[in-house]
User: Fold this.
Amino acid sequence: MLFFILLAFLLGCANVISKMINYRATQELGTWNGSLVNYVVASALAFVLLLCTGGFGPDSLTAWAKAPLYLYLGGTLGVIAFVISLVCLARMEVFQSTALLLIGQLLAGILFDVIVYRNFTLLKLAGIIMVASGIILDKKITSGQTSDPR
Assistant:
């Protein structure tokens, strides 16, 4: 279990680093071109991994054709979320953007638990409220400071 906790932590770190690199790409290329570069490279890498693992063949093409259309929304929503993330990052600090992303993910997780598993606890909601309160408090504290404290 410790391995998966560490892996999840590393994923979180990789997400922030990736976001910063992709944000830089959008500064150089523009939002849409930077996003396109990100997804073209990611798609090419996914295809290479698919070929290397032996997961590509006639059976997978049949499975793709039979898959319900809503399964393809994951990629669509991923692109939309990615672009929104980059646009927000241009207008707020990395910490705030990342924390708000986390709050959105936590809230979506709770809603998913409620809808699918009929499971809700006030403790989960309290956790989101605590994180959101921390962001608001941080914003109030940092907005009261000058950029040059000397």
In short: Residues 31 and 87 are 8 Å apart (CA to CA).
